[in-house]
Structure formats: structure tokens, C-alpha cells
Request: fold
Amino acid sequence: MFTGIITDVGKLHEMSGGHMRIRSSYDPATIDIGASIAHDGCCLTVTDTESVSGGGCIYGVDIGPETLAVTTLGAWQPGHRVNLERALGLGAELGGHMMTGHVDGLGTLKSREMDGTSERFTIDMPPELARYIAAKGSVALNGTSLTVNEVTNSSFGICLIPHTLQVTNWNELKAGDKINLEIDLLARYVARLNDMEHLERT
Reply:
């Protein structure tokens, strides 16, 4: 499980078929083989680690064809900056919201504009996920836990403060870019309960 609080922005070091290597500031001594790390919101399993001169590490992860097909990972090139989050530990502070690291679909950045010192981003959402996104609710975008400000039939808005822009890769996004989207777990179960109640009434 994850919370959507980014703890490092790594870089894609190399990618070969279904294997990817990530450069990170994480201490390799703290990463077990088999550990889960979210990459732009996509949970991947660490297969190997190596120390890097000057600190940090390079670690490897394997990626299945399904993951490459339904997330942004298949389009990454070496140097791509990646939002990283280690798996939630027992007793850790829950600063965002509960996330699984399983991407539900791809949003598309429609626009971004300044709002005081913050920025407002408008995201076009997949039609099949629209029922799960509500104003003031939570959503995970590229692994970042964010609050939905407003919703239309086809898009929703979020606001990012300067700190979030500085400690994630969000400042590099431009209109037309695809975004990994994970809906809120609570919204998923509420929708399921509503569906079951509707079936029972019919």
C-alpha cells in the first residue's frame, strides 16, 4: 500500500524490453529484493540494487506487457524523471490517502494555469472512470495524492502548491501528456455497493 506522498524523484537509467533500471537517492541498504516501490503511481517489484558513487543507488524492476500497455511506462525514455514512493510501513504517518499502486486508466493533461502562487491543472478523464471522481474527493495522479477541486462530465481540476511542484515531476508536464490515474478505494467500493443495490431493486 502507498499514500501518494512522493519521497524521491528518480530517473530512468535504462530500459530494455521488460526490464527497467532506476537511479534514486534511496540508500540501497534499505531496499530489500522483492520490495515494492511506486513509480509514477505504478507498483513495481525491486529485482536488484547497486550502490552509486556519491550516494544513492540504481535498482532494477521487471515490467509485464499489461503494465506497459495500460500505463505511461512504455513511453518513458532514459532521463525521464519518476515520482517514487516506498511502500507504507506499519506505524508510518498516513499523509495522503490509501493507494494500491494499480493504475486504473490514463488521464490527459488538458491545461495548466497559474492561480496565485499555485497552479491549476485540468485533466481529461476516461469516461469509464468518471463515476468514481468527485469534487473534494481524493485521486492519485502519477503517484501523487491530490484533492479534486471541480468535476465536469469529461474532466476534473486539481491545484498544486509550489512545494508539490518542486518535489515531484509535475512541473515538467505539458498539455497533451498522459497521466497514470488511480481512483480512490472508497469511491470504488461505494460505486460497487450502489450497483448491487440497483441490481437488487430490479
